[in-house]
Specification:
globular; four-stranded mixed beta sheet; alpha/beta; single chain; 17% helix
Length: 133
């Protein structure tokens, strides 16, 4: 028998409350404390926990973007092609910093279907059209 497990990606932050709120607002979720762990906040969406944010007072934001060809862990937030521009406006209004938007030629009339950002604490994330790589 396999023991039931739940996984959640956890981001470290010197100030976890505003970062958790950023992702809850961006993903349409809520923020609450993790049971039994006062340093961990959980961002929960309609399908359950999607992200954790842990207090780390000594955390220093990463240097990003990284050198050419370097792939580092990041969040990939999938949206519809029609919703990409609106998702970008929401992310920036909430405090995301645009890093790159390459012309991949995938969407007529659009500069790209893959847009890179840094969240308010400097973590990398991407808005991408669902079903495209």
């Amino acid at each position: 028998m396999t023991v039931p497990k739940t996984t959640v990606l956890v981001l470290d932050s010197a100030e976890p409350e505003p970062l958790a709120r950023f992702y809850a607002d961006l993903l349409g979720g809520t923020v609450g404390p993790a049971p039994g762990d006062g340093d961990l906040l959980l961002v929960t969406g309609a399908t359950g926990v999607v992200l954790g944010v842990r207090r780390d007072p000594g955390r220093v934001p990463p240097s990003w973007p990284l050198p050419e060809g370097s792939h580092q862990p990041h969040l990939r937030i999938l949206v519809t092609e029609q919703g990409l521009d609106e998702a970008e406006r929401e992310a920036v209004a909430l405090g995301a910093r645009p890093v790159a938007a390459e012309d991949d030629g995938a969407a007529a009339g659009s500069r790209t279907t893959l847009r890179r950002y840094a969240d308010p604490a400097g973590h990398a994330f991407v808005l991408a059209v669902a079903g495209r790589d």
